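Schema walk-through. Below, the input block comes first and the output block second. Nothing else is stored per chain. Lengths vary across the set, and this one has 172 residues.
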Amino acid sequence: MKKTDTKFYINFIRILPILILYLLVLTGFDLSFFLYDNNFSFNFVYLIIFFFVLKNPNALGYGLIFLAGIINDVVQNFPIGVSSINYLLLCAIAAFIRSRMILPNIFYDWILFFISILIVNSVNYLILTMIFEFPIKYGILMSSAILTCLIYPLFSKVFNEKILLILRSEND
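--- output ---
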């Protein structure tokens, strides 16, 4: 490849997490499907934020994540600031895990992601129901958390092999 093509490719890979995050937030995209009259959905925004704050903290800044939360609130018709609190809480948990982890392991990441999703969804539920009296069903929130957690290893495998390897080879 030419040198300019390589630079473009590396710069595109560098901003890809930001593009994916804002694409998901602006479209309000959650992969949801109905099975036996139950609505199941994945929250890809939580996956993006947790993974990149844990593995490559330079990819997403906290200001960009806060702004994504504000945009998500507008798109989803939530009270302004609720998603930002959730996203920044997820960032704080991922940053804490990153600072305490000695050897990265997909199994530990997976378990800690599930715990952090439970914490974030609990805070989300408390804020929306107690403060804003927003009607939300805890069962749907819990099933979304479990399904999001189940897809994390696949997501992590794909992004570890594709994006992080390219960014690491660029830094060497």
